[in-house]
Amino acid sequence: MSFKHITSRDNPIFKYQKKLADNSRERKAEGKTLLDGVHLIEAYLQVFGEPDLIIIPEGKSTLEASNLMQQLEHVSTIMFPTLMFAELTPVASSTGILAVVKTPALEVPAQPQFVLMLEDIQDPGNLGSMLRTAAAA
Predict the structure, then answer these.
(1) Domains and CATH numbers, the chain
(2) What predicted TM-score, i.e. pTM, was given to this entire model?
(3) Would you call 36 helix, strand, or coil by DSSP?
(4) Residue 17's closest CA among 2, 7, 27, 25?
(5) For residue 97, which of 120, 124, 119 has the smallest C-alpha distance?
(6) What is the pLDDT of residues 67-115, one digit of tens each?
(7) CA dist., res. 19 & res. 70, Å (int)
(8) Fewer CB atoms near the end CB (10 Å): N or C, the chain?
(9) 59: buried, middle or exposed (CB in 10 Å: 19+, 13-18, 0-12)?
(10) pLDDT digits 0-9 by tens, 114-124
(11) Nearest CA to 98 among 22, 36, 13, 14?
């Protein structure tokens, strides 16, 4: 697996990723978003296909992240120092792998029977619990 190792905050690639991470208008204009964590990336992969980019921090990765990266070995990967990586992650406690993906274009039914709106979820693990609870309601 090959990857770019970027260590400068002045690098245009980092600046672009930082803009995506910090600015919802930028994400909407670009049609992209950031996913944090192996499980979200795997779910996206199963439904929508490969991400555009994988972002990882320097240092040791989890076994799950390493396995996922092997599965996505031909997807461009960027490595940032840990502190720079932390500036990009949309959650308080990152799992150590991010993916830049095309924002799925999902149609909302004209007469939705049930809607669950979520914003600023701090722990990605809570998303599954929220969805299961909503589905059971």
Answers:
(1) 4-107 (3.30.1330.30)
(2) 0.76
(3) strand
(4) 27
(5) 124
(6) 888 888 889 999 999 999 999 987 877 788 999 999 988 777 787 777 7
(7) 28
(8) C
(9) exposed
(10) 778 887 777 77
(11) 36
CB-CB contact of 98 with 88 (8 Å):
yes
- The tokens of 17 are what? 């990723």
SS3 category, 79 = strand
DSSP helix/strand/coil, 27? helix
* Residues 77/6, Cβ–Cβ less than 8 Å: no
Contact 1, 70 (CB under 8 A): yes
- Distance separating alpha carbons of residues 83 and 61, to the nearest angstrom: 15
How far apart are alpha carbons 47 and 32 in whole angstroms?
16
Tell me the residue type at 109: P
pLDDT digits over 6-37, tens only? 999 999 999 999 999 999 899 999 999 999 98
